[in-house]
Design a protein that fits this description.
By secondary structure, the chain is mostly beta strands. It is 2% helix and 39% strand. It has helices spanning 25-30, 108-112; strands at residues 6-7, 9-10, 37-42, 72-79, 85-92, 99-106, 135-143, 148-149, 153-155, 158-164, 169-176, 184-185, 192-195, 201-206, 212-218, 226-232, 247-251, 265-270, 276-283, 297-305, 322-327, 333-334, 346-351, 357-362, 372-378, 394-400, 404-411, 425-426, 429-430, 437-441, 447-453, 457-464, 469-472, 484-485, 496-499. The strands form eight sheets. Strands 2, 8, 9, 10, 11, 12 and 13 form a seven-stranded mixed sheet that branches. A five-stranded mixed sheet has the order 1-7-6-5-4, with no helix packed on it. Strands 18, 19, 20, 21 and 22 form a five-stranded antiparallel sheet that branches. The longest helix has 6 residues, at 25-30. The chain is globular.
Length: 501
């Protein structure tokens, strides 16, 4: 049984993306949390298509396993602008079934349990719901010769997909994801064709003058170089495609001691000042994600400037930009992903509705027991404001004192009742009797309870809402006050929790 996916249909009239500008890219980058929440996207429903291939069933999950780099594996992950879908990229190299692929997942638990006007917000851990709402809904085939789809990204509703095969040839394909459950190829006229060049990752922004700027990263051409190739669209219409001429930056030793990254994913960002930035994600271990627990998952931030040119000008021309690294190897080291995620497998940047940045990450393949697609969400904390609705509530439970190590985040009433912490896995390990510090923001007079034993038994700690963000650095030393009532020596004691009824 195999299911390489249904072919992408072309779109008759490719629609242009909006210009997306961030107010302060450096602050948004620094606000991305370094610990994430685990999301499991089930892959076992039967997918029915025209009959050209066998339907994808739970039995075919075995095809996701095996050595990294071969068979079926994942390479990138994005969350779509509608907030309700997560898309993975990957490749199937099995003889006779080669295909570069996109795996579309629907995040039903988020849609069902949040107000309609908040559907783009944080998803949060979905380990507590047992309905299997969050799931793979379709697999699409991009190409059968260029069988490997690398680090994807989003430019508004346009999905940017770099594909390559066994030779030194690659393409950048552009896909309309305005209807994520019905992806459409934007056509041959838009394709960037690259001869004698690989394409490991690609990203695109729309400039204030309406044109598109696409960046392609490669570090596997065999010459040891790490290149960023820039392409500028011919006009302000995406359907007119890109100029074949490009400008290249060869990445040299830069920063503290020199860095030689191998980025799995890149993301271009446009600031309202007119500056262009790029985030690159990778894992420091050369052979990762095998084994999965070695190496550091990290992100770096760069700024590009086009000397003497204003990117807001209608007459902007593509010249070789200067590149500055703003956050080096010591910045933004994310938590160990184990078998949950690895930045050499896939990561992706998401623009939040309030103009901040979140990161989603995945692993090369599923683990033996999950029978689903793994994703981790690194979503920035709520801004420091007074809240009045329980839907805006957030409770952050940390493994160590001073808000360190693993954390379980509860957003609103979504999955807020946890009867058995011994059934909760955070970053692959039990979270029973682990909570040592807490941050929370609850509406005034709303109470959240932490219980000593399973099933809401034993002693309990009360977290009382004031409308503002409150913090307890050490549950062993907490003093009763206006926003909490904590039993003595309550660190590493929480086994169940819920809102007070």
């Amino acid at each position: 049984m195999n299911y390489p996916g249904i072919p992408l249909e072309p779109t008759d009239n490719p629609k242009d993306a909006e210009v997306v500008e961030l107010k302060n890219v450096e602050d948004a980058f620094d606000d991305i949390p370094l610990r994430g929440e685990y999301i499991l996207l089930k892959s076992d429903p039967v997918l029915i298509n025209s009959g050209a291939y066998d339907p994808y069933t739970a039995d075919n999950v075995e095809l996701f396993k095996g050595e990294a780099g071969r068979k079926r594996h994942f390479q990138g992950v994005v969350r779509t602008p509608d907030g309700n879908h997560i898309i993975f990229s990957g490749g199937e190299v099995k003889s006779g079934k080669k295909a570069s692929q996109l795996f579309v997942c629907r995040v039903e638990s988020h849609v069902r349990q949040t107000p309609r006007d908040d559907r783009q917000g944080v998803i949060g851990t979905n380990l507590n719901h047992a309905r299997g709402w969050d799931k793979l809904i379709e697999i699409y085939t991009i190409d059968r010769t260029l069988w490997h789809c690398g680090g994807i990204s989003m430019c508004g509703h346009i999905l940017v997909a770099p594909i390559e095969g066994d030779g030194n040839r690659s393409e950048i394909r552009f896909i309309d994801a305005s209807q994520p459950a019905k992806l459409r190829d934007m056509g041959d006229a838009v394709v960037i064709k690259r001869n004698k060049k690989k394409a490991g990752a690609a990203s695109m922004i729309r400039l204030p003058n309406g044109k598109y700027l696409c960046a392609v990263w490669t570090d596997s051409d065999g010459n040891g170089k790490r290149n960023i190739d820039f392409y500028l669209s011919k006009t302000a219409k995406i359907k007119d495609g890109f100029d074949e001429k490009n400008k290249t930056i060869t990445y040299g030793a830069t920063g503290k001691g020199g860095t030689h990254p191998k980025y799995q994913v890149i993301q271009l960002l446009l600031e309202d000042t007119g500056d262009i930035y790029m985030i690159g994600t990778e894992n420091s271990y050369a052979l990762s994600p095998i084994p999965p627990w070695i190496g550091k998952n990290r992100a770096r931030l760069y700024r590009f400037r086009f000397a003497g040119q204003d990117i807001k000008s209608a007459g902007f021309k593509l010249i070789i930009p200067t590149m500055s690294i703003l956050r080096d190897t010591d910045a933004n080291i994310f938590g160990p992903g184990s078998k949950r995620y690895n930045f050499n497998a896939g990561a992706g940047v998401y623009f939040t509705p309030d103009g901040r940045l979140a990161v989603y990450a995945t692993h090369h393949r599923t683990s033996n027991g999950d029978k689903g697609l793994q994703c981790t969400e690194f979503y920035p904390d709520y801004p420091g404001k007074v809240i009045t609705k329980i839907e805006d509530a957030v409770i952050e439970l940390y493994d160590d004192k001073d808000f360190k190590d693993r954390s379980l985040k509860i957003r609103g009433t979504h999955n807020a009742t946890i009867e058995h912490y011994n059934k909760i896995l955070v970053e692959g390990e039990s979270f029973n009797d682990k909570v040592s510090s807490v941050r929370f923001q609850l509406p005034k007079d709303v109470i959240y309870e932490l219980w000593e034993h399973d099933g809401f038994k034993g002693k309990k700690a009360l977290l009382k809402g004031t409308g503002k963000m409150e913090a307890i650095r050490d549950l062993d030393k907490a003093k009763n006050n206006a926003f909490c009532k904590i039993p003595a020596n309550f660190s590493d004691k929480t086994s169940s929790s819920r809102f007070a009824g």
